[in-house]
Specification:
Helices cover 29% and strands 26% of the residues. It is of the alpha+beta class and 160 residues long.
Amino acid sequence: MLKGTALRCGLEGIPTIRLRSVLARKVPLLDLIGHKPIQFLLTSGKPGRFNLEETNCLYFSEDERTAMEEWERLLVGLSVKHCATFFVNIQIGTVLDLDDSKTRAGLKLSDEDLFVDWATSKHPVDTQLLGETVAATTPIAAIRFPSDADNHGKVLEQIP
């Protein structure tokens, strides 16, 4: 993947898409109802596939099945059982579409880079560095990418 200045320059001219859709999100029920008033857009500040710790962002799935697959993948070994599903109707004008092979090629982002195990890495992985660069230096509002939990699903990371 492009790095540093090359990445910032590559992002300047990269095409984006507009996205109008209804997205799904599953969250632990107790986390949701533990806040008064209920915070549907609560961010944990925990690291994710395209963000480092303390970078607030929201992950949504493009369909309920993918949201369930993502939820189940995250819960392996945990005792959390009850979840809430909610849906958002979004309209975003600047989405970096990493499901598009030309976009990935423009960033020199390989499939290996895209699906690297970020959760067990001791250092930030390329997708996290990409997300941080997008959030800090571009007007891009979200990143769309293939789910690693559902072979056909797509996930959207929205940068607040």
